[in-house]
Amino acid sequence: MRPLEVPDLVVVATRVLELDPDEALELIDLDVAARAIRMARCDGPPEEAAARLLRALLRHRPLAERNAEVAVVATLQLLALNGRELVIDRPAALRDLVQGLSVGSLSQRDAASWIGDRLGRYKEVGMRKKIGISRLWGEQEPCRTPRERRSVELAEEAARGLGHNHVGTEHLLLGLAREGEGVAARALARLNVDADAVRREIEAAIGRGAEPVDETPPFTPRAKKVLALAEREARRLSHGYIGTEHLLLALVREGEGLAAQTLVKLGVDFAGLVEEVMRIMRGGHPPVDVLRDGLGNLFDEYEKLRDEVVRLRTLLRQHGIEPDGGATRTA
User: Fold this and answer.
1) Residue 164 sits in which domain range?
2) Which residue in 118, 204, 225, 233 is a FRET match for 74, CA 20 to 30 A apart?
């Protein structure tokens, strides 16, 4: 199953609520959305995945208003992305399903059974597979987050301040620790690694220059390799951005530079560090600025969604159910 991600939900909300991306981002509680989507993940059949997503969005309410309508269309979109179509023969039954899940009178198993009985296949599913729908931002070059950029700038400042004629992996590690707020800094802090400790180990290993360097020194080949590995880590994780977490994972993957040696001297277990990074990432969502930058590509892929919204609204109104009232108000 191709899962629904936070950017997907943002696009759904913009289509359903007829908002600009910035307006949608203001309305959606991204932390709640990430938690709901994370809880909805499963490797089961489409009807189970759809039921989990619908229930999670209805229960967690990432949107204060019209949450149910967005939840229903997001569920339709999840099915569409996986070549399935929900055939709604009795729209009143959909309203009852949403109401039941919202108040807890229907279970996730009930929802999966209801959806499973009404699943069909898109005729154009072969075409969709041929075109290919990206998991996040597709083949677009991952963009660097402000925190990742800042950590590299801090690495350059650290090299100059220490009087070194190069920016090495050790300086990249020091920059990540000094940045202080990103995933990398938080993971390092949880393992009792701080900027002062990293700086002391660097000075013990290669000393200080006679005086600070005025111009930014060049990156070493190993540091350049780590920067390239950071992008590779982002792609491996299907992320559309390069954050401090990817840079830290790259330092670990490179494994031979002074940064890796410094971590070993500070008692860091590489496997434990990677696990901590992954644990922090699982608890969050892509940065807002990255979400905003990446939405354009998803809009191009989601023209089918507009038809789904229109189809759903028309069908409900034909049966006397107002999409913006009824089920929406009961969520």
Assistant:
1) 143-282
2) 233
* String of DSSP letters for 61-84: -SSSSSHHHHHHHHHHHHHHHTTE
Contact present, 223 and 159 (Cβ < 8 Å): no
188 Cβ neighbours under 8 A, 6+ residues apart:
176, 177, 194, 248, 273
Q: Is 66 exposed, middle or buried (0-12, 13-18, 19+ CB in 10 A)?
A: middle
Strand partners, 37: none
**Same domain membership, residue 115 and residue 70:** yes
Considering the domain architecture, whether residues 149 and 278 belong to the same structural domain is answered as: yes
Tokens of 293: 């930058």
Q: Provide the domain count of the chain.
A: 2
CA distance 9 to 1: 16
The CATH number given to whatever domain includes residue 322 is 1.20.120.1870
Answer yes or no: is 64 within a domain: yes
Tens digit of pLDDT at every position of the chain (331 positions): 677 777 778 878 877 777 777 777 778 888 888 888 888 877 778 889 888 999 999 989 888 888 888 888 888 878 877 777 777 666 677 778 888 888 888 888 888 888 888 877 654 433 333 222 233 333 445 567 778 888 999 999 888 888 888 888 999 999 999 888 888 888 898 888 888 888 998 888 888 887 777 788 899 999 999 998 988 888 777 666 788 888 999 998 888 888 888 888 888 888 888 888 887 776 554 554 444 444 444 444 445 555 555 555 565 556 554 544 444 333 3
Residue 16 placed within a domain: yes
Q: Does residue 288 belong to any structural domain of this protein? A: no
Whether residues 177 and 127 fall in one domain: no
Asked if 268 and 248 count as a contact pair (C-beta separation under 8 A), the reply is no
